[in-house]
Amino acid sequence: MTVIDLVEPGELRRQARTDAFEEGTEDARAGRVTMLASGPTSVIALVGGVRAETVEMSSTAAGLSWTCTCMEGKGIMFCRHAVAVAADAWLRFPSR
Ligand SMILES: [Zn+2]
After folding, report:
1. From ligand 1's centre to the CA of 95, what distance in Å?
2. Which residues pair with 60 in a beta bridge?
3. In the chain, domain spans
4. What's the gap in Å between 1 CA and the centre of ligand 1?
5. Is the Cα dihedral 69, 72, 76, 78 positive or negative?
6. Residues in Cβ contact with 8 at an 8 Å cutoff, skipping those fewer than 6 apart
7. From the CA of 45, how far away is ligand 1's center (Å)?
8. Residue 84 alpha carbon to ligand 1 centre in Å
């Protein structure tokens, strides 16, 4: 499974609070995501303007593993930055 497969829109919407989902997708549309490294099974990206957060996502045997440097980055629900990285990936690969 690739990272993008694991963060398809419906799944992400279920795993993020509504405000985080909306803010994160807006961050992606506004171009506030900078991919530092991206491959099929792992992604590292910077998200944000004044204060950027670093998000790392990887596909593991147990599913998606992710971390973010923000306050909510160790939570169960996706933070807006994790949503932004996933949304940015969909925008880059619209055929998926
Ligand atoms: Zn975050």
Report:
1. 26
2. 63
3. 3-92
4. 23
5. negative
6. 90, 96
7. 11
8. 9
37-87 pLDDT, tens per residue? 988 899 999 999 778 999 999 999 988 899 999 998 888 899 999 999 999
The rounded Å distance from CA 5 to ligand 1 centre is 20
Cα gap 8→53, rounded to integer Å = 22
Q: Which of 90, 93, 73 is nearest to 7 (CA)?
A: 90
Query: CB neighbours of 94 closer than 8 A, spacing ≥ 6?
Result: none
Its pTM stands at 0.89
Q: Is 44 exposed, middle or buried (0-12, 13-18, 19+ CB in 10 A)?
A: middle
